[in-house]
Write a structure and sequence with these properties.
about 35% strand; 3 strands; flat; alpha+beta
Length: about 55
């Protein structure tokens, strides 16, 4: 099972700021099954959906 990356957010957001989580919450409100994962290699949070989801 693959995943499609919708957006990337640097891990260094200001304290108390969760832009990846906020973006994913908006996508979930629109009906997409968005999830936030951490890409350790690039030190970024990725918002992903299952590869089969349509835009």
């Amino acid at each position: 099972m693959g995943a499609k990356v919708l957006e990337r957010f640097p891990a260094g957001a200001p304290r108390g700021s969760w832009p990846a989580e906020e973006y994913a919450a908006k996508r979930r409100a629109e009906g997409q099954s968005a999830t936030v994962v951490m890409d350790l290699k690039s030190d970024a949070f990725l918002v992903v959906v299952p590869a089969g989801d349509e835009d």
